[in-house]
Amino acid sequence: MAKILAGKRIIFGVTGSIAAFKVAGWVSHLAKEEALVSVIMTESAQRFIAPLTFAALSGEKVYGAMFADDMSEPMAHIDLAQAASLLVIAPASAQTIARLAHGMADDLLSTTVLATRAPIIVCPAMNSKMYLHQATQENITKLRNFGYIVVDPDSGMMACKDDGPGRLVEWDSAQEIILRCLSDKPFLGKKILITAGPTREAIDPARFLSNRSSGKMGYALARAAYRGGADVTLVSGPTTLECPYGVERIEVETAEEMYSTVMEKSREASIIIKSAAVSDFRPTEIHTQKVKKDNIKTSLELQANPDILFELGQQADRNDKILVGFAAESANIEKEARKKLTRKNLDFIAVNNIKEEGSGFGVDTNKITLIDAEDTIHLPHTSKEETARLILESVATILKNKTR
Ligand code: CTP
Fold it and tell me: What pLDDT does 403 receive?
């Protein structure tokens, strides 16, 4: 991950909920990413978890009382509010949400909220009946109208044995929201369509043709696009990966399903990145019953699948869009990629040498070369996360030049 959090001052408000112990881990993650974390605890939060835990994990002073004994900081709420790049309140209890909705200023956290102009993320955690109560729901609507980002809690079995919405959101999701808040957003208001993973072409109910794509590169692109402010649709072939937070995922199986979904979704997208490894062929016949081995022929008759990327490159509105393709090559890398760039009418193509170690299918790293009509840029051998960020940096440059 690029060091989005490094050096950023995050005010972290902890309030009175049993989930307070979970955010000790969040503070630890933020500190490891070199964020500067100032924790403010409400009085009831301090009944659930000791301030010392947060002081040890953040390596910083933990704030509690509104009127500190320490006269060196008489205006802590103003100083903290001004220094903040972001304010996160997690877990946010029903009580704190109600106080914030009414603009109360009777403790250090609520005064800091009023005094800051940094983005505010609120992560509710409470019993599901309390969460679903009209009072809490109206208070949450108010906070959203103030411009605060209120994160929907997860659903499931709670500490009080009730089952429903109200569990503190998981760190993986919270992290994505925090990263989006603190990232540059070149894609704000833009719809980005990304394809990922392999396709599967059935032979019979048990067998299929496919390839080694894991989908990791496309999913990393979806995460990076979300962080960059985009409205992201991910059309994914079969993978074992979780849908990235904030991304609309449409799951498909065959190249033909991917074709029809992409064609429909492409109408509203201004940026399309085709990282899926689409099967170029499918069996001419799909058997409805499993073929017994005594009856299996030794050759399989195939027919071509539609080339989705090629079709996108021929659309009437092609010039209103940015179109990025991928290529996996094992020889004459640059020459082969250039042929595809021209034939498919792309803005640029991201190519990797699948024979190179640590590059391409299944692994967590990649070594990509970006090729457009004029240039060849060799990206470093790095994580797929970082590769995704660098690819989107190139897309953002094209977008900037287009809208200039
Ligand atoms: N692609 C597509 N539809 C297909 C095949 C490929 O949209 N039916 C897209 C892929 O998502 C990728 C690019 O086209 O962005 C890959 O180009 P392609 O020519 O298919 O590459 P290879 O399959 O590697 O081709 P070849 O086997 O000829 O090298």
Answer: 82
Amino acid at 168: L
State if residue 255 touches ligand 1 by the CB under 6 angstroms criterion: yes
Give me the active site residues, please: 160
pLDDT in tens, 242-276: 999 999 999 999 999 999 999 999 999 999 999 99
How far lies 346's CA from each of 24, 116, 270, 308, 396, in Å? 47, 45, 13, 12, 15
Instruction: Tell me, yes or no, whether 50 lies in a domain.
Output: yes
Domain that includes residue 70, residue range: 2-182
- What are the pLDDT digits (tens) for 17-36? 999 999 999 999 999 999 99
Domain count, the chain: 2
- Measured in angstroms, how far is the CA atom of residue 16 from the centroid of ligand 1? 54
CATH number (domain holding residue 134): 3.40.50.1950
Is 289 domain-assigned?
A: no
Question: How does pLDDT run across 101-145, given as a tens digit for each residue?
Answer: 999 999 999 999 999 999 999 999 999 999 999 999 999 999 999
Is the pTM here over 0.85, yes or no?
A: yes
Are 81 and 221 contained in the same domain?
Answer: no
Mutate to test the pocket of ligand 1, among 308, 351, 368 (most ligand atoms within 8 A of CB): 308
DSSP 292-314: PGGG--SS--EEEPP-HHHHHHH
341 pLDDT more than 80: yes
Instruction: Please indicate whether residue 311, judged by its CB atom, sits closer than 6 Å to ligand 1.
Output: no
Residue 70 has pLDDT above 90, yes or no: no
The answer to whether residues 195 and 275 belong to one domain is: yes
Q: Which two three-digit tokens encode residue 128?
A: 């599901």
Query: Do 228 and 200 belong together in one domain?
Result: yes
The answer on 258 and 135 residing in a single domain is no
Q: Give me the pLDDT at residue 74, please.
A: 63
Cα 305 to ligand 1 centre (Å)? 10
**376 contacts: CB under 8 Å, gap ≥ 6:** 334, 369, 370
Q: Tell whether 287 is covered by a domain.
A: no
Q: Whose CA is nearest to atom 22 of ligand 1?
A: 327
Q: Which of 217, 199, 196 is nearest to 362 (CA)?
A: 217
Asked whether residue 292 is assigned to any structural domain, the reply reads no
160 with 204, same domain? no
